[in-house]
Automatic annotation (TrEMBL):
SUPFAM superfamilies: P-loop containing nucleoside triphosphate hydrolases. It comes from the Bacteria. GO terms for molecular function: ATP binding; ATP hydrolysis activity. It comes from Aquimarina amphilecti. This is Phospholipid/cholesterol/gamma-HCH transport system ATP-binding protein.
Amino acid sequence: MMKKQIEKSPILELKELQKSFGNNNVLNGFSLQLFEEENLVVMGKSGSGKSVMIKCLVGLIQADKGSIKIKGQDITVLGQNELDLLRTEIGFLFQGSALYDSMTVRENLEFPLRRHKEKLNMKETTEDLIIEALENVGLVDTIDLIPSELSGGMQRRIALARALILKPKIILYDEPTTGLDPITAKEIIELMRSIQKKYGTSSLIITHDVDCARVISNRIILLVDGINYAEGTYQELVQSNDPQVKAFFKH
C-alpha cells in the first residue's frame, strides 16, 4: 500500500499580491509558495515587478492587496516589534552587495548582531558568529579590511556572510550573480548550494541569469505582466511551446 504523501506547509507564501504606482499596475495578483529547504527561482524581464515584489516582502513598500505569510504569520498585519523579530528569520543578499564602505568587514558583520541581540545564543560570542560566517564563505583573513580593498566577488561573499550571520530560515537573493565574471558567478552559485545544505535554508532567488536558474533551482516561477505566468522545473519550462516561456530560455 502506498503511503499518502504529507502535504508540507510553505515557509513563505505570497497570495494575490497587487501593487500599482499611479496607472502603472506592477503586480496584478502575484502568488508563490516557498517550501522548506527549497531553492525557488523567480525570473522576470526588467520592469516585470521582481524588485517591487521583494520590497513588499521585506516591508520596504506596502502591497495594495494580498497577503504575505512567513512561517504562517501574515506580515501585513503585524506590529513593528513582531515584524522586526520575524525579519531575523530572513537573510537578504542585496543586488550589488550593499556593504557599508566606511566599516571594516568585522563591523559590517557586527551590524545585524547589534540590532538583534535577542537572537544570540548565550554560548556564542559576537566574534564566534563573525568567524563562523566568514569561514562559510572562505574569507576569514579579510576581517579587518574595508570593502574597497576587496574584489567584487569577495564583496558578494562578505554580503552573503552578513545575510547568514543570524542563521535565518529563509534567504532572499536579489540578482546574486549580476556584475560578476562567469567564473566568480559560478563560485557564488556553488557557495549558495553548500550553505543551503549546511543550514537547511529555504532560498528565494531573483535572477535573469538562465545558467544560475538552471544550476540552483528546484523550481522556477516566471513573472510576466505582474502574475505567476508559469511554474515548474527548469526541464519542464525549457520544453514549453508557449512563446512567452520560450523567450526566457533563448541563448
